[in-house]
UniProtKB/TrEMBL annotation:
Protein name as it appears in the record: Putative MFS-type transporter
UniProt xrefs under InterPro entries: MFS, MFS_dom, MFS_trans_sf
GO terms of molecular function: transmembrane transporter activity
Disordered: region residues: 17-43
Organism field: Lachnellula arida
Species lineage: Eukaryota, Fungi, Dikarya, Ascomycota, Pezizomycotina
Database matches in Pfam families: MFS_1
Membrane topology qualifier: Multi-pass membrane protein
Record's subcellular location: Membrane
Residue ranges crossing the lipid bilayer per the database entry: 66-92, 104-123, 135-154, 160-181, 193-212, 224-244, 264-282, 294-314, 335-361, 367-388, 400-420, 426-452, 473-491, 511-531
Assigned GO CC terms: membrane
Occurrences of domain Major facilitator superfamily (MFS) profile (ranges): 69-535
Keywords: Membrane, Transmembrane, Transmembrane helix
Entry keyword Metal-binding: no
Length: 542
């Protein structure tokens, strides 16, 4: 904590001589989802509770409290990602202990990103109206409770339902964490580091979760880690009650604001679309033959129709000068659109690489789960260093140079794994692939989050966080599904030709790595052409 304190800028304390809070207006040519972005002037004779509620806008957090805020916000993301690592390694044992039917084996891992993607936009919109603190606190408490519940589950169905609710709870935390950082941490190095922390704790949590699960699975059992993680999350909730800054006092009726300031129809359309499409992706990742089922075809066509309906609805809201969830005009900003596409593609590659490398080590090279986790560990170390370094230097350098360099390097990771031989030592290709794999994804998390948050007005920062995290989650789902489908098709075709299981698996995974490389190339093109005019971001403001 002392190291983090040394690199966080001091947040100026509230002056005792100040008699008013100066109105602050954020101009944005891209978004107009509220009638005004001004924070009204407040007289000096307001109550102490009102002054406390305005501490975010007036910069009343000292350096220690800023660090604590960052730690509690990142802690919840870390613990949630930790449980995903538990699932990645321990799912076969969990399924056996809970008598989970074979046709439901993918759902403990699939329902979590599905529910997060579905709920993020709506959670961010509501938080922007009624306040980020309370929504985040509720999400933190519920996350801890449902992680504990997973450890207490007696049946497979119970476990899946608790994972569903954990995803909903985390969806309350992710966008509000972005908004709280944007409003309580000053622009510049402090905020850049905070956003970097929000980024690197997710892959770190996942990787550490895999290692821990591999260690305890045959000793104290998988339930112990859920008890520990849930308890730690509830402890973070207790700290958050003190640490998280209060929101400005809401003027007027909350119900009226919820009714008038949220695009409920748009939220319903996009949430339904994401839920349906994520479900189809999950079924395809289980078996490519599922696309032949009539119900999945109908759902896939329906999700495409909902996307078109959402675009038309947002255009209508803009023409009528009504609050729009994600205005169509926002996508005319080339930098914003390029950032979102690049984040989607880099997350698709990085997440799929982590999963398929683990499968390659275990299924093709017949290394234990713990050994596979150790071999993936270098990507964790590189990711940590990249995220922290990005937060420290992004305000002083050109983001375009950073993005283009890391995109080119990371594209080499799946290429190395695509040409690998199972007989090669780890150091020949697999090790450098682990070093290169996380670079672009981790750089783009910080740069993308800064760019997206700066593209939205100050009063819709939770929605900005929701949009970014939705793109992030969606990219992970698309990448994993696409590689799973390609790998399954090639493996089955190879087996039908009479070749052995190990060779068929290897050729299937090899095809998956080539697919990941094919996703990395357009990411380089989008980043190279779309972000070449991107100015400096994360710069400290007066």
């Amino acid at each position: 904590m002392s190291e983090l304190l040394s690199i966080i800028d001091v947040v100026p304390a509230r002056s005792s001589k100040s008699s008013t809070v100066t109105p602050h207006t954020v101009d944005s040519p891209h978004v107009s989802s509220r009638s005004t972005n001004s924070i009204p002037t407040v007289d000096a004779n307001v109550s102490s509770s009102s002054l406390e509620a305005l501490e975010v806008e007036d910069g009343g957090l000292n350096k220690t409290r800023v660090v604590v805020v960052i730690l509690v916000l990142t802690g919840v993301s870390f613990l949630s990602s930790l449980t995903n690592g538990f699932i990645a390694i321990g799912l076969p044992r969990i399924a056996s202990d809970l008598s989970l039917p074979a046709h439901l084996i993918i759902w403990p891992s699939a329902v979590y990103p599905l529910t997060i993607s579905t709920c993020l936009i709506l959670a961010g919109s509501i938080a922007d109206v009624i306040g980020n603190r309370n929504i985040n606190l509720a999400g933190c408490a519920l996350t801890g409770g449902f992680i504990l519940a997973c450890g207490l589950a007696h049946t497979g169905i119970e476990f899946i339902m608790f994972r569903v609710m954990q995803g909903v709870a985390v969806a309350l935390c992710l966008p509000t964490s972005v908004a709280i950082v944007s409003r309580s941490v000053p622009a510049g190095r402090s905020r850049n580091i905070a956003f970097s922390c929000l980024g690197f704790v997710q892959p770190i949590g996942f990787s550490i979760g895999m290692v821990l699960e591999g260690v305890v699975l045959d000793t104290v059992g998988w339930r112990f880690l859920y008890y520990l993680s849930g308890s730690l999350c509830l402890a973070l909730f207790a700290v958050s009650l003190w640490a998280l800054p209060h929101d400005p006092v809401i003027q007027g009726s909350i119900l009226t604001k919820l009714r008038n300031e949220i695009d409920w129809v748009g939220a319903f359309i996009i949430s339904t679309c994401l839920a349906v499409f994520s479900y189809v992706l999950a079924t395809l990742s289980d078996s490519v033959d599922n696309i032949r089922h009539p119900v999945n075809i109908v759902l896939l066509v329906g999700s495409v129709a909902l996307i078109l309906a959402f675009i038309l609805w947002q255009g209508r809201r803009e023409r009528l000068n009504l609050p729009a969830l994600i205005p169509n005009s926002l996508w005319r900003n080339k930098v914003f659109t390029s950032v979102c596409l690049t984040v989607l593609l880099t997350n698709a590659v990085a997440n799929a690489m982590e999963t398929f490398c683990s499968l390659f080590f275990q299924e093709v090279q017949h290394i234990s789960a713990f050994g596979a986790a150790i071999r993936i560990l270098p990507s964790l170390v590189v990711g940590f260093c990249i995220q922290l370094t990005t937060g420290l230097i992004i305000h002083r350098t050109s983001p375009f140079i950073l993005v283009l360099t890391t995109l080119a390097l990371s594209a080499g990771a799946p290429l190395l794994m695509a040409v690998i031989s199972p007989r090669w030592p780890y150091w020949y290709a697999a090790f450098p692939a682990q070093l290169l794999s996380p670079m672009a994804c981790d750089i783009m998390f910080t740069i993308g989050l800064l760019a997206v948050s700066e593209g939205f007005p100050a009063d819709t920062q939770a929605l900005a966080g929701a949009v970014f995290n939705t793109v992030n989650q969606f990219g992970q789902s698309i990448g994993l599904t696409l590689l799973a489908v390609v790998s399954a098709v090639v493996t089955k075709k190879t087996e039908d030709q009479g070749k052995g299981k190990d060779e068929a698996l290897f050729l299937g995974y090899q095809a998956g790595f080539w697919t990941a490389f094919a996703l990395g190339v357009p990411a380089c093109l989008v980043g190279g052409f779309g972000l070449r005019h991107m100015g400096k971001i994360g710069v400290k403001r007066d």
